[in-house]
């Protein structure tokens, strides 16, 4: 279980996606991109723009239901990608590697890239931007909401009354 939290802002996510795209330029051209849903959708859109790639496909892998972790299951296959030859797979994070293994089996010839990688699964990706400790839970911008925080002076004033 994660004991540390790291918040990724929209700006940081965009910068990291552009860094990943830049590292992929020498591998161009790609026939298309396969976004691992849901986390890979936004990074894939940014990277598709940066690499001038118009074909964006998706693969959806479910590894858990509302209550427990189960066997990973592809619920939407990336039909346009075939065996992955010439395609780039994009995800936000490789954590335990469960999803990445399923995607690699389905698209063995694709290049697999993600923004963030944890030690247990970083060997499953060909490119990543930032290594994250295994005990860190990443809070992505789509998982969080900005909240108003009163100024410290306001809190002090409230306690003095």
Automatic annotation (TrEMBL):
Positions bound to Mg(2+): 92
GO molecular function: hypoxanthine phosphoribosyltransferase activity; magnesium ion binding; xanthine phosphoribosyltransferase activity
Positions with a binding annotation for guanine: 95, 138
Residue ranges of domain Phosphoribosyltransferase in the record: 33-146
Pfam families: Pribosyltran
Residue positions binding GMP: 95-99, 137-138
Metabolic or biological pathway: Purine metabolism; GMP biosynthesis via salvage pathway; GMP from guanine: step 1/1; Purine metabolism; XMP biosynthesis via salvage pathway; XMP from xanthine: step 1/1
Cellular compartments annotated: Cell membrane
GO cellular component, one term: plasma membrane
Uppermost EC category: transferase
Keywords: Cell membrane, Glycosyltransferase, Magnesium, Membrane, Metal-binding, Purine salvage, Transferase
Binding-site list for xanthine: 95, 138
Alphabetized InterPro entries for the sequence: PRTase-like (IPR029057), PRTase_dom (IPR000836), Xanthine_Guanine_PRibTrfase (IPR023747)
Principal place of residence: membrane
EC number: 2.4.2.22
Cofactor: Mg(2+)
Membrane topology, as annotated: Peripheral membrane protein
Catalytic activity: XMP + diphosphate = xanthine + 5-phospho-alpha-D-ribose 1-diphosphate; IMP + diphosphate = hypoxanthine + 5-phospho-alpha-D-ribose 1-diphosphate; GMP + diphosphate = guanine + 5-phospho-alpha-D-ribose 1-diphosphate
Function field: Purine salvage pathway enzyme that catalyzes the transfer of the ribosyl-5-phosphate group from 5-phospho-alpha-D-ribose 1-diphosphate (PRPP) to the N9 position of the 6-oxopurines guanine and xanthine to form the corresponding ribonucleotides GMP (guanosine 5'-monophosphate) and XMP (xanthosine 5'-monophosphate), with the release of PPi. To a lesser extent, also acts on hypoxanthine.
Oligomeric and partner information: Homotetramer.
Family, per entry: Belongs to the purine/pyrimidine phosphoribosyltransferase family. XGPT subfamily.
Name listed for the protein in its UniProt record: Xanthine-guanine phosphoribosyltransferase
Organism of this sequence: Acetobacter orientalis
Lineage: Bacteria, Pseudomonadati, Pseudomonadota, Alphaproteobacteria, Acetobacterales
Gene: gpt
